[in-house]
Amino acid sequence: MSCIDIIADYGLRSIGIGERLLPRSDFTLCHQFTLIGSGMIWNIYFGIVALVSGFVLATAVAVGKAARSAWVRKPSEWFIFVFRGSPLFIQFFFAYFLFLSLKQSVPIFAPFTAAWLGALVVLFLNTAAYSGEIFYGALQSIPKGDVEAADAYGMVGWTRFRRVIWPTMLRLAWPAYTNEAIFLFHATTLVYFSGFPAWQQRGDALYYASYFADKTFNPFVPYPILAGYFIVLTLIVVGIFGLINRKLNRHLPQNSRQKIRLRPNLIR
Amino acid sequence: MFDFCTDPDSLETFRWMACYLTTGKHMGFYQSFATVLILLAVTAPVALSFGFGGAMAARSRIAPLSWFGKGYIAIVRGVPDIAFFLFFVIALDQLIEWARHKVICPDWTDPIRQGNDFVVCSAAKMPLGTAPQWIHEMYGFAIAVITFSIVFGAFAANVLFGAMRAVPKAQLETAAAYGMNDRQTFWRILVPQMWVYALPGLGNLWMVLIKATPLLFLLGIEDIVYWARELGGTKTERFTDYPHGDWRMWYFLALLVFYLAFTRVSEMALDKLMRKLTHGQATTGGEAQRRVEA
Fold first, then answer.
1. What residue ranges define each of the domains in chain B, with the CATH number in brackets?
2. Interface of A with B in 214-253 (CB under 8 A)
3. A42-256: CATH class
4. What letter would DSSP give residue B115?
5. Along chain A (268 residues), what's the average pLDDT of each consecutive run of 10 residues?
6. ipTM of the complex in this document
7. Is residue B125 helix, strand or coil?
8. CA-CA distance, B215 to B205, in Å (whole number)?
9. Cβ(B140)–Cβ(B92) under 8 Å?
C-alpha cells in the first residue's frame, strides 16, 4: 500500500469519509502523518469557529465590564471570573454532564452532547471570557486624547464607539489577542480528553496521536508529529494575525507600531 | 460514619445526605483533594528550581549550555501543553525501565522494541510486578510530579530569564566596579533584586499551575476528576446502599466551585504579596502607594 492510498483512505477519516476501521497493525510513518493530520481538521474547526464567535461576545463583555451601571458590570465581571478562574478541563466535564442531564428533559439539547457542538459552546464561552479581559484592559488604556478628539468632532454614542474607541481598543489589544488565539488552538486538544466522547473514533489530532502511542508503546513518533503540525498551525496564526496587526497600525509611524511578541502560555 | 446510618432506606433527605457524603468512597474523594494540594506543594518549588537552573543555563557564556537553556525555554512554545504531559509520562517511564534493563540484565539479547511492544526483563520493571499497590501509586505520582516540574520549569525559566534581564544594568556595573567577580555579582546583586520583576509572572504561573492540576487524571492518578466521575455515575440498589441517578453534573459543579475559590484566594494572597514587595520601590506601583499614604 503506497502512501497515496493511505492518504486517500484516511485523509478525511476524522470527519467520517474514507476507511471506517483504524489501522490496527503495521503502522507506517505515513499512517501516522495522515491520521494525525486528519485530526487537525477538528482542531482547526474548533479554533476558528470559537475564535470568530467568541470575538463578538468578548467585545460585548469588555464593554459590559467597563460600563458604569452595576447591572451590566457585575454579570460581565462574574462571567469573566468563572471562565478564567476554573480549569477548562473541568468546564468541559461539567458542560458535558450538564448537557447530558438537560437532554433527558429537553430533547433539543441532544446535539449538545456531541463534541462538535457541546465542546464548541464551551470553547466559545471560554475564549470570550479570556479575550473579554484582554479587550477590557485595552479599553482602559485608550489614550484620553483620542476620546477627547472624538468628542471635539461631535461624535457621540455608537459613532464614537465604532470609529474611535473600538479600532483603538483592537489595536492596543491585538498583540495579547494573538497569543490568546494561539492558546485557544492549543486548548482545542483537550476536547476529546474530557467528557466529550469521540463518536466512531472521529477525533482530533491528539486523539489519534495518543491512539498510536498506545498501540505502538512508542511516544517518540506520534507526539513529535503532532508537535510539528501545531508549530505549523501556530506559524500560520501568527502570520495572519500579523497581517491584521499591520492593517490596524497602518496610520501610525513605523517606530510607534506595536509588535506582536509571542508569550508562551499554558493550560487554561 | 454516623450511628443512624445502619439502614439508609429509612432516612429522610438530610440524614441520608449526611450518611451518603461520609461513605468510605467519599473519604477517598476528599483525600484526593489532598493529593492535588500535595502535588502543588511539591511541584511549585521543584519547578521553580528547574526554572532557576534553566534561566542560569540560558545566561551562561558557555555556548552549549546556553543553547540547552534556551532550547528548554523554547520547547514549550508552539506545542500544546497536554501533548507534553502525555509524552513525558510514557517517555520517562520507558527511559527509567530501559536504563534499569541495561544495568540489571546485561546478558539479555532480545531487542527491547519488538515491533509494537516495549519489553524489558521482569527484574527491570518499574515498579516491580510484585510490589504492593501503594508503591505503584507512589511511582505514578512521582512521575506526574516530575512531568509537571519539567513543563512548568520551562515556563518559570522564561519568567526568571526575563526578570534577570530586567534588573538595571547600572547595578551590575556598580558591582563589577566594586571588584566583585561574576559569581558574586550574580548571587549578591542580581538574584536578590530580580524577584520583584519576576513576581507578576510567577504569580500568573501559579494560577496556571492550579488550573493544570486536573490533568493528573490524564496521567492515570486517582485524582478528584477520577473520583467525581466514579461517584457521580448512576448507582443501582444492587451495588450500593445509596442508589441515585446520574449526579456527575453536581460533582463537577463542586469541583468548579473548588477551583474558583482556590484561584480567588490565591489571587488575593498574591495581590497582598505584590503590595508588600512594591512598598518603597522606585516603580510606578511603589510611587502610587506612597502617594496614597501621603
1. 21-293 (1.10.3720.10)
2. 215-220, 223, 226-227, 230-231, 234-235
3. mainly alpha
4. T
5. 77 77 77 87 93 94 91 93 89 89 84 85 93 90 88 90 91 86 87 78 84 82 87 88 88 71 53
6. 0.82
7. coil
8. 16
9. no
